[in-house]
Amino acid sequence: MGKLNPKQVENLSEPGTYEDGEGLRLAVKQSGRKSWVLRYQIGGRRREMGIGSYPEVSLREARLIAAGHRKQLANGIDPMAVRDAQREAEREAQRLKEAQQVAFQTLAIAYHAAHSSMWSEKWRKGWLRKLELYAFPSIGKRPVCEIETEHVLRVLQPIWGSKTRTADELRGQIEQILDAAKARRLRKGDNPARWRGHLDNLLSRAEKKKARKREHFAAMKWQDVPVLMATLSAHDSRAAVAARLMIFTGARAQMIRLASWNEFDLVAGVWSLPAGRMKMRQAFEIPLATPVVEMLSELPCAEGSPFLFSGQGKTGAIHANAIRNLLHGLGHDDITRHGFRSSFRDWANERTHYPREVCELALAHDERDQTEAAYSRSDFMEKRRALMTEWAQFLVTSPAANVIHGEFKRA
């Protein structure tokens, strides 16, 4: 028999704790709120478990609940652990219910809105356009938690042979969106749009290689690049410095355009790019040769701008076509900005003996397969530093370059 009765429970108003017996008690707060608490001990630990508020839970109901928990304790079961597990199961069920309501198209548009401010205008429009043309009609309304390999193949296979590069870019976009879904806990398991070790076994690798070969950028012969560098160094403009940084580092034009001062450690000679700024969404470090450090040390910071190369547009960075316009103005409308990466790669092939993986990683191309990457996690930083130092030396010590740069000093 308990110590409390229904009338007492109803009339109690003085703040405090009132025992009913066998660990059950009524707690009355200063505010007048009343709640039931079960005190018990298990595994040498004393615990207190709330079992409801009064009057929602009556005295009789509180005693029945407490009796049920005491039976669990008699069997060595912690009732609070059981309750927590039940609550987690309910939360997980709610997450699954929400996941069933989030369609691929909805998440894709949200991803675009969250990330596209850092992309070029051309890529921003094309990114969404590819999804609208090829993915949304097939999987746009499908919940992200339900998308499997068969659905991804249904999107890619019709254009894999005829528009392989577009299809591969689309595959990467689907992979990014499904990764975001997993990060939001809207899906579980492996990403069905992953290439290595998955779709590369189901789609033609040969077609992908052919598509890459078809996409070639007009490039300057590596022998002629030092002359251009000397010309650029004579130009007093941020576009010219941006062009030189692009050639010195082998970076992509968009990496250069949005380069911010907080990414650079000029003392250590390292440019650290976060994952969100990289094409493959993996953080990357670029070693800076001495001439690059000296050039950037002399570059004034634009007041109020985080960018090395500030501009007047919406992003606050230099215009997307500033480097291209400069090159065209110098009479080089036959080459592309991206082509300088090919110039560097051709020079590395013909003038150095560095391993292929070092030369490729200098351009942020990691072509190691999953097994290699698991055992060889090196970013070859010191070897890449030596390679980029030799490249800088070549650029500034040719006869034409010497007119401007003078004698090159090794780092």
Summary of the model, kept short:
This protein is an alpha+beta fold.
Describe the protein:
The chain has 18 helices and seven strands. A four-stranded antiparallel β-sheet has the order 1-2-3-4, with helices on one face. Strands 5-6-7 form a three-stranded antiparallel β-sheet. The C terminus is likely disordered. It has 411 residues and is α+β, with helices and mostly antiparallel strands. The protein has three domains: 84 residues, Double Stranded RNA Binding Domain, CATH 3.30.160; 111 residues, Orthogonal Bundle (DNA polymerase, domain 1), CATH 1.10.150; 184 residues, hpI Integrase, Chain A, CATH 1.10.443. The N and C termini lie far apart (87 Å). It is elongated, with a radius of gyration of 32 Å.
Question: Could you estimate the helical fraction of the residues in percent?
Answer: 40-55%
Counted by DSSP, the helix tally is 18
Could you name the CATH class of the largest domain? Mainly Alpha
Q: CATH topology of the largest domain, anyone?
A: hpI Integrase, Chain A
Beta-strand level of the residues, as a percent range? 5-15%
**Gyration radius, rounded:** 32 Å
Class from helix and strand fractions: alpha+beta
Secondary structure layout:
Blueprint: H1 6-11, E1 16-21, E2 24-28, E3 34-42, E4 45-54, H2 59-74, H3 79-99, H4 104-115, H5 121-139, H6 149-160, H7 164-183, H8 205-214, H9 225-233, H10 238-249, H11 253-257, E5 264-265, E6 270-273, E7 284-287, H12 290-297, H13 322-329, H14 339-351, H15 356-362, H16 370-375, H17 381-397, H18 399-405
Antiparallel strand pairs: 1-2, 2-3, 3-4, 5-6, 6-7
Helix pairs in contact: 4-5, 4-7, 5-6, 5-7, 6-7, 9-17, 9-18, 15-17
